[in-house]
């Protein structure tokens, strides 16, 4: 199953509490409701394993995709577009990575 991995930090000055509230109350619900999505999780990153060094990214999103063609069609959905706009107000240069299990 294709998975989209999104790694990002919040923009300078962005509120962590506002981002996390929006993610829980809006983004996760919207993305999980898409027919093309099997699951969606947002992870708050902590430290590099075994160290006290902070992760280079604050957040990681994992979007498990049922059908990529349908997913790309879903991206034009009005609620998805509205969510993308808000996401872009919070996220500083996010990396979107396509991945597949081996």
Strand-helix topology:
Blueprint: E1 2-10, H1 16-32, E2 37-44, E3 59-65, H2 68-74, H3 78-90, E4 91-100
Antiparallel strand pairs: 1-3, 1-4, 2-3
Please tag this protein with its features:
33% strand; Alpha-Beta Plaits; alpha+beta; 102 residues; four-stranded antiparallel beta sheet
Count of distinct structural domains: 1
CATH topology assignment: Alpha-Beta Plaits
Low-pLDDT stretches: none
Order of helices and strands: EHEEHHE
CATH class: Alpha Beta
Specify Rg, calculated over alpha carbons: 14 Å
Shape call: globular
Distinct helical segment count: 3
Give average pLDDT, whole number: 97
In which order are the strands of the major sheet placed?
Answer: 2-3-1-4
Termini gap: 10 Å
The SS-based structural class is alpha+beta
The CATH architecture name reads 2-Layer Sandwich
What is the helical fraction, as a range of percent? Answer: 25-40%
Concise structural overview:
The protein has three helices and four strands; from the N terminus they run E-H-E-E-H-H-E.
How would you explain this protein's 3D organization?
This protein is an alpha+beta fold. The protein has one domain (2-100): Alpha-Beta Plaits (2-Layer Sandwich). Helix content is 36%, strand content 33%. It is built from three helices and four strands. It has helices at 16-32, 68-74, 78-90, and strands spanning 2-10, 37-44, 59-65, 91-100. Strands 2-3-1-4 form a four-stranded antiparallel β-sheet. The longest helix is centred in the N-terminal third of the chain and has 17 residues, at 16-32. The chain is globular. It starts with a strand and ends with a strand. The model has no long low-confidence stretch (mean pLDDT 97).
């Amino acid at each position: 199953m294709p998975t989209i991995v999104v790694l990002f930090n919040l923009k300078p000055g962005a509120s962590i509490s506002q981002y996390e509230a929006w993610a829980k109350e809006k983004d996760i619900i919207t993305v999980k409701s898409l027919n093309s999505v099997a699951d969606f999780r947002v992870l708050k990153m902590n430290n590099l394993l075994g160290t006290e060094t902070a992760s280079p990214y604050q957040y990681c999103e994992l979007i498990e995709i049922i059908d990529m063609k349908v997913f790309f069609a879903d991206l034009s959905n009005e609620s998805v577009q509205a969510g993308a706009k808000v996401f872009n107000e919070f996220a500083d240069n996010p990396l979107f990575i396509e991945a597949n299990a081996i």
